[in-house]
Amino acid sequence: MEEYLIELKGLSPQLVGRISINSSGELFNVEVDIIQSESGKIFNHVTILYNESDRKEALSLGVHHLQVFLDSKVHSR
Hints:
This protein has 1 helix and 4 strands. It has one helix at 55-75, and strands spanning 2-7, 15-24, 27-36, 42-52. Strand 3 (27-36) and strand 4 form a beta hairpin.
């Protein structure tokens, strides 16, 4: 499993974005969450993407889904 932490500028410094990529044979599954930076506990589950054929594309899609989720929360205030 690969894990990427992403700073969430403009939000609480106690929260970070996390993208976890798991390989399943030749395919990749991506889990996107917002977690508490100290404990690693999930604050908000964003999405899971299944059966992506390219690891780099899987990471890019994870970042995109995190950004769309955050944008929707900012604009809904």
